[in-house]
């Protein structure tokens, strides 16, 4: 494969302007991430200390193999919700290595509001277990949650993708032979009791760990019986009387050590044989990405320059280099794994959509995983393009992408607007992992366009009602709706609602994709086949 | 597979006739037996057609630099993909790939341009796109100015005809 020849001039004024802008964006992201991880009310920290409990990230450090990477997912979940009172949605999830096995971790964050589950906490746990199901990854639950956040119970409990889904997923994981281990550090009450209850293995810490369907206050209210938490569902009782828990531990450290020993007994799954070469780092410095990404979302950049800073040796076999040039397609390797890359170099035309559909089919025939690099303002619109069948050509691309039996991965590199989001494997299309860069934006249309559309609708409404069209009213509407819309376009809003698996520093993209692909290969390939392609 | 290479600028053809027991290379139709016999770092030893030879070697991209018998040699491997690309001549017409509006004009008629230089920046579908020269040349005319709208395929700028097409 040929090395991409970069046309970037790192000494140019444009490069320096862009680099300064993007470095500032990444610094802001890093600070938000640090605060979400570490900043906690003094009261909560003291409460943990009083109970002799570790902070959740200290537990993680003891659990993970030393010197191995941990890819935290959705570190800024819920950052725009609940007045910021649920950093990371009070849940830590991520890919890591425990006793030499690739696992996914779900840890309740008891350093905030006792680890209570907010609606987005539940969404994050469900997503974590969906990842486990899709990629055949064993799960380690670190349980320490007060239970559902009662003031918002209407958004936590009853619906299809709410708390019940956690336990449903646990059952399906077990059925599929995908192992689960629960370490019980705190009280697992009501539904929460089923997390250890539905895990194949569990360990409970004496004194602080407890598992019961109803805690002591509820028991007293219901039957008048007075009982302590330890008597009702403590380590002693569950490991020697009820058999609900497997191993008692005297301390949290011991519980983690027992947990690591349990994982050591698990068989190591075979990965499916994706084509692999020896991994080599990119020839071009990934730090250049800061100067390549624009400071204004409207300005373009060549996605090949991005590819050159992600893939092995910056080598890329470009497919159909002179056809449908607004979609760059080609083969490359990431961490040695052979992948098919699709990256946007402009709006999708008929030819680029057809090329994309064709390339996706080639990758499926070749069992090559797909990597989508999104910077898409949509499919081209207008009379000529509709007459040429832009809708049905886009439909072909969406059909080929959706029905792919190879794993798909998406990186939100800049813009993601309109149907382009679909064709390029947006969140709804079951990509195995999706990461976003801090500069990225996502929405049904751009901010300006949305404000203008709303103003036009309002003007038409005024006319219909026989009112005079008031320009100042329209301008105000444009302004206020525009601002609200812009907030919702931001990567932080998207990641807050778990529309992705987390914001990452662009420089970390290669490693994030490398870990994601490596994890994804634990699950066998899907079944090949397509629906009806409108030809 | 025959490899093409240039030795101090002179083209040669080479293919591998055998790998064992010794490497047998056929260069411009003549066979040579070659075996590496050791070396440290850049200093290498080899036996070529029965004769022991010491040489220094360094590599950079597609090129190898040899110091042998008091002389320097540059060996370039010719990639057929590069060779083919060199022959392609871009058009002098700069056409709009899609309908849109001109955001800015970066060059003036009479300006010399090299392939890849931005002539105009256009905006279409919320995205700015740079329209670039496909070949080196001199800008003859720019047919659109800032704010102008255009249809797909419209010629927005032109390079001067090349005077000597054999150059």
Describe the structure.
The complex is a heterodimer of chains A (535) and B (167). Chain A is built from 20 helices and 16 strands. Chain A has a seven-stranded mixed β-sheet, sandwiched between helices. Chain A is α/β, with parallel strands linked by helices and 535 residues long. The mean pLDDT of chain A is 95. Chain A is 40% helix and 16% strand. The longest helix of chain A has 26 residues, at 13-38. By secondary structure, chain B is mostly beta strands. Chain B is built from one helix and 16 strands. Chain B has one helix at 80-87, and strands spanning 3-7, 10-18, 23-27, 30-40, 43-48, 51-60, 63-68, 71-78, 93-95, 100-105, 112-113, 118-124, 127-132, 137-142, 149-150, 155-159. In chain B, strands 1-2-3-4-5-6-7-8 form an eight-stranded antiparallel beta barrel. In chain B, strands 9-16-14-11 form a four-stranded antiparallel β-sheet, with no helix packed on it. Chain B has a four-stranded antiparallel β-sheet with strand order 13-12-10-15, with no helix packed on it. In chain B, strand 6 and strand 7 (63-68) form a beta hairpin. The longest helix of chain B has 8 residues, at 80-87. The mean pLDDT of chain B is 87. At the A-B interface, loops of A face strand 13 of B.
How much strand of chain B? Answer: over 45%
Low-pLDDT stretches of chain A: none
Low-confidence stretches of chain B: none
Helix content of chain A: 25-40%
């Amino acid at each position: 494969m040929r090395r991409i020849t970069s046309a970037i001039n790192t000494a140019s004024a444009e490069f320096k302007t862009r680099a300064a802008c993007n470095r500032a964006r990444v610094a802001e992201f890093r600070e938000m991430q640090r605060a979400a991880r570490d900043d906690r009310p003094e009261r909560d920290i003291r409460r943990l200390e009083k109970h002799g409990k570790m902070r959740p990230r200290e537990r993680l450090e003891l659990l993970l193999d030393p010197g191995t990477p941990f890819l935290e997912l959705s570190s800024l979940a819920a950052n725009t919700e609940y007045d910021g009172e649920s950093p990371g949605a009070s849940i830590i999830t991520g890919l890591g290595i425990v006793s030499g096995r690739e696992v996914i971790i779900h840890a309740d964050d008891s350093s905030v509001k006792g680890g209570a589950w907010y609606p987005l906490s539940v969404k994050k746990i469900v997503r974590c277990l969906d990842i486990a199901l899709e990629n055949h990854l064993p799960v380690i639950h670190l349980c320490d949650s007060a239970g559902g956040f009662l003031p918002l119970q209407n958004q936590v409990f009853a619906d299809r993708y709410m708390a019940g889904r956690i336990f449903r997923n646990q059952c399906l994981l077990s059925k599929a032979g995908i192992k689960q281990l629960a370490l019980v550090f705190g009280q697992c009450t009501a539904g929460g009791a089923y997390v250890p209850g539905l895990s194949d293995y569990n360990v409970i810490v004496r004194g602080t760990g407890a598992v019961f369907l109803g805690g002591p206050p509820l028991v007293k209210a219901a039957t008048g019986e007075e009982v302590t938490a330890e008597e009702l569902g403590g380590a002693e009782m569950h490991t020697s009387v009820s058999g609900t828990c497997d191993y008692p531990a005297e301390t949290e450290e011991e519980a983690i050590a027992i947990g690591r020993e349990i994982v050591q007994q698990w068989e190591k799954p075979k990965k499916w044989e994706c084509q692999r070469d020896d991994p080599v780092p990119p020839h071009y410095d990934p730090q250049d990405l800061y100067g390549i990404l624009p400071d204004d979302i409207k300005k373009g950049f060549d996605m090949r320059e991005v590819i050159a800073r992600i893939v092995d040796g910056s080598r890329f076999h470009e497919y159909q280099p002179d056809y449908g040039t607004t979609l760059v397609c080609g083969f490359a390797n990431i961490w040695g794994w052979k992948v098919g890359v699709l990256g946007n170099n402009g709006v999708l035309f008929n030819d680029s959509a057809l090329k994309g559909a064709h390339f996706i089919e080639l990758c499926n025939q070749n069992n090559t995983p797909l990597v989508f690099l999104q910077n898409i303002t949509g499919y081209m619109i207008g009379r000529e393009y509709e007459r040429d069948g832009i809708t049905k050509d886009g439909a072909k691309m969406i059909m080929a992408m959706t029905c792919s039996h190879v794993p798909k991965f998406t990186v939100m590199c800049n813009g993601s607007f309109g149907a382009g989001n679909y064709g390029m494997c947006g969140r709804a299309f079951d990509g195995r992992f999706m990461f976003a860069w801090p500069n990225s934006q996502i929405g049904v249309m751009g901010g300006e366009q949305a404000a203008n559309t709303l103003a036009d609708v309002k003007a038409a409404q005024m006319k219909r009602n026989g009112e005079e069209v008031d320009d100042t009213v329209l301008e105000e509407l444009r302004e206020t709706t525009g601002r609200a819309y812009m907030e919702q376009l931001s990567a932080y809003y998207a990641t807050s609602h778990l529309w992705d698996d987390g914001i990452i520093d662009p420089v970390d993209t290669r490693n994030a994709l490398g870990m994601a692909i490596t994890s994804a290969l634990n699950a066998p390939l899907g079944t090949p086949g397509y629906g009806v392609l409108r030809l | 597979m025959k490899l093409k290479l240039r030795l101090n600028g002179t083209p040669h053809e080479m293919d591998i006739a055998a790998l064992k027991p010794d490497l047998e290379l056929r260069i411009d139709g003549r066979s040579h037996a070659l075996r590496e016999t050791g070396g440290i770092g850049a200093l290498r030893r080899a036996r070529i057609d029965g004769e022991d030879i010491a040489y220094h070697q360094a590599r950079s991209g597609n090129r190898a630099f040899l110091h042998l018998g008091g002389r320097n040699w540059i060996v370039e491997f010719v990639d057929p993909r590069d060779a083919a690309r060199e022959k392609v001549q871009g058009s002098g017409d700069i056409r709009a790939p899609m309908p849109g509006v001109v955001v800015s004009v970066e060059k003036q008629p009479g300006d010399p341009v090299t392939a890849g230089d931005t002539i105009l920046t256009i905006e279409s579908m919320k995205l700015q796109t740079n329209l670039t020269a496909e070949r080196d040349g001199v800008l003859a005319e720019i047919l659109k100015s800032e704010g102008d709208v255009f249809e797909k395929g419209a010629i927005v700028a032109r390079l001067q005809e090349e005077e000597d097409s054999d150059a």
